[in-house]
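Input chain follows. Return structure tokens only.
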Amino acid sequence: MTALVWQEDLNTGIDVIDNQHRRIVAIVNALSDAQQRQDRRAVGEVLEELVDYTLSHFTFEEALMEDAGYEFGRPHKRLHDIFAARIRQYQLRFAEGEDVADELKSMLSRWLFQHIRNDDRAYVESVRRNMLKLTSDTSEGGWLSVALKRFFGRKGA
């Protein structure tokens, strides 16, 4: 399999999400590299990273959708749950000694880009609208002020 290459039509316009998606692509490419080196230990480590990072990404994405009141958040979460279960199955098969790298890379290359282009694209407007609302409230008790104080200990960063 050739390396996955990020394509401009995968950008959602939400930088934090786009950066997370790019990271997942990089992990898939690391899986391919580990397999080409025939390094089973490295394949296992990359598989572990893929599972951990993807689950974290899904949780973050779902929180954004929920905060935005995205009406299809629950079905989108269900897609994530189904995908996570599939990835865990690959992880189990690998732990039992099976070589799952080719099959996993093939599934990931199809699923990931399709999911971003279709399923993720559907929530973008709701999340962007909510993010603009949250960050435009610069009042003392507004979200931006509270977040800046929480993360930076002051009003401005």
